[in-house]
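We modelled the chain as a single entity of 388 amino acids. Its sequence is:
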Amino acid sequence: MPNSCRRMLLVCFLGCLAVVLLASQAFGAPQQTIKFGILAPFTGGSAPNGDATRNGALLAIEEINAKGGILGHKLELVSEDSQGAATPAVTAAQKLIYQHKVDAIIGDTQSTAVLAAEPLVAKEGVLQFALGSAEKITQVGNPWIFRVREHDKLSAICLVNYIVDQLGLKKVAMLHSTDQFGVGGADNIAEELAKRGLKFVAREAFNTGDKDFTGQMLKIKASGAEALIGWAFDIELALMCRQARQFLPDVRLFASATAGQESFLKIAGESAEDLVAVVTFTANNSDPSVQDLVSKYKARFGATPQNYFVALAYDSVYLYKLAAEKAGSVEKTAVRDALRKIRGYKGSIGLTYNVTPDGQTLHELFVIQIKNNKPVIIGKEVDKSVKL
């Protein structure tokens, strides 16, 4: 074939290629789907946490997709049941990673499940927005984990800041459950008191399922306590409040974040009046960002979001979006690195996310007081030791 013909064919080929490329740009080249996986309990006693997590993430994904996705990529959601326990959590994580091929995992809400799946997340390099509160989650050195929630010590720091530094109360008693949640909470409170040269005037415990705290209350009364902190789940914490009002009418009551939950308030009734706690979220918050979430959630699911995992999962999706847009890419390492640079992002919980090198995102909590059986925000406490 003469050289002139070869040149003509090459020019034609390049011209056709240019037309194809221009057309793909004009009409939109196929985009990958960004797949989020929910790792959470959907069966067992913690199932409401799984439902809340899925609903919060779904709400965010539907909103983002309606506006064109993230950098033109549509979002998809899949879920697997961890049962809130170690072994099924590993199986669920394997399904999310190998079967569903997710780009990011939201959950688990249970620290045990998060830690069980952590080695797999590290091995495969999958972004995980953990919702468990155990400090160990951000201490294992896994660069792929970001905790979108307070850690256990933050609750203690903020509550002691308020009781001792703000109110000036020094005689503090503790009544807690003997499970990991209760003991860990009491230990963290004791550590924060020690930093101020204080210790419990009384520390009493009870087993999950106990209903009578008379013995503990009498010891606390004899200690001369000014403040009593209760650290337990909803039923026992509510019963504790009822009996504290009977035995310790002049002692001020404080509690774990459980006090902000509707299940606790229903059981505690009037005995919870004026009790103070620290929380990440309450639907009663008048902040526009919170009320925007409440309004959209009501429209989509027909109810007010009472479970804080709704807001935390919703914010997890938007944190991913913010990081991807900062990176200009949805490549997982680029998104991960951009996540670590996020500062000053106000979420739907009304608090500000500031990501530290260990993957912790929250360093402040709301102080609530129960008024007419509803949590009312009366302040905010910040962990001032964190360097951003």
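As a brief sanity check on the tokenised model: The two ends are 69 Å apart (CA to CA). Residues 153-279+368-382 form a domain with the Rossmann fold fold (CATH 3.40.50.2300).
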